[in-house]
Automatic annotation (TrEMBL):
It comes from the Bacteria. Residues 11-71 form the HTH tetR-type domain. This is TetR family transcriptional regulator. One of its GO terms (molecular function) is DNA binding. InterPro entries: DNA-bd_HTH_TetR-type_CS (IPR023772), Homeodomain-like_sf (IPR009057), HTH-type_Tx_Regulator (IPR050624), HTH_TetR (IPR001647), Tet_transcr_reg_TetR-rel_C_sf (IPR036271). It holds the Pfam family TetR_N. Keywords: DNA-binding, Repressor. The keyword Transit peptide does not apply. Residues 34-53 bind DNA.
Amino acid sequence: MKIVLRSNRKKELKEQIFLKAIELFKQKGYENVSVEEITSACGIAKGTFFNHFKKKEHILLQLGNSQLELLETTVHQHSQKKLKERLQLIFADLLSIYVEYSVLLKTAISETIRSAIVMKDESNNIVKLQSQIEKIIVEALEEKSFVSDRDPRVIASILVAIYFQSLVSWASTDMTVNDITRYFQEQFEVVWEGIENGEK
């Protein structure tokens, strides 16, 4: 019981550091915020910060890591749905993180795009997301609940690409939080028509 409580407190503290850091990045700009400022704003020691994040750049990776945690849950949650609906629901759930923390996370996305160091690590999260989507498509093909002559890897790659393109558009324009899901769904429908046209 104590281990579980300690784990929960550790997770809450990590999230608190993440959100406070993003708030500071928004106010002052990513480059102008030091680790010392983050720890001071959180009321923690510098060593506590480094227990959760190796360096400042890794705060931005928490965004992708949060999505991977949610991905595992949402993949199982929608497992009984038909492939198209299941994929739409999975991506909608992932987008919900951005909607929930819209102002803070818009800054995180912008800074992640600009940071080459983080993008190297972020690409691992993208690969994991794409692999999970590909696995879902392959399972649907094997169960014959979905038929297409398109390569599952290509389908997954395109769907993940439009997902991230939606996030980039949202982060770099005046698009509202309500617009992002609709924007993604419109692109999803166009792409899905091409996938369906490729069915045997």
